[in-house]
Amino acid sequence: MEARVKWLENLTFTGTSGSGHGVVMDGNKDAGFGPSPMEMLLLGLAGCSSIDVVHILQKGRENVIDVEADVKAERAETDPKIFTKIHLHFKVRGENLNETKLARAVELSAEKYCSASIMLSKAAEITHSWEIME
What's the domain of life for this entry (predicted)? Predict the structure, then answer.
């Protein structure tokens, strides 16, 4: 896996993944053109885990219509300001979803499949919750 980051101006950078996809990242909180690198970590975590949850539910023949993952994180107050706590909350919509299967999908993602979650859990306490949306 490879990636490249290129400085544009001020604290703005473009990132290009090895697969050719691009993103703008910005360290300027006030007039930024994209998420900060730390926000990108949270987006990656939520994306990784959401992919797992959808995939596991679909394999379990659940009729998933929509999944949203809200992420809240706390950071250390001093440098390096690493994440200390991260919470993912999944909102899942579907037809006659099985609560037990949803709980198991979230658990499997957190403990077995989501590389981002497992890696970040070495530094931060990661918790999960979920709800079925009607």
Answer: Bacteria
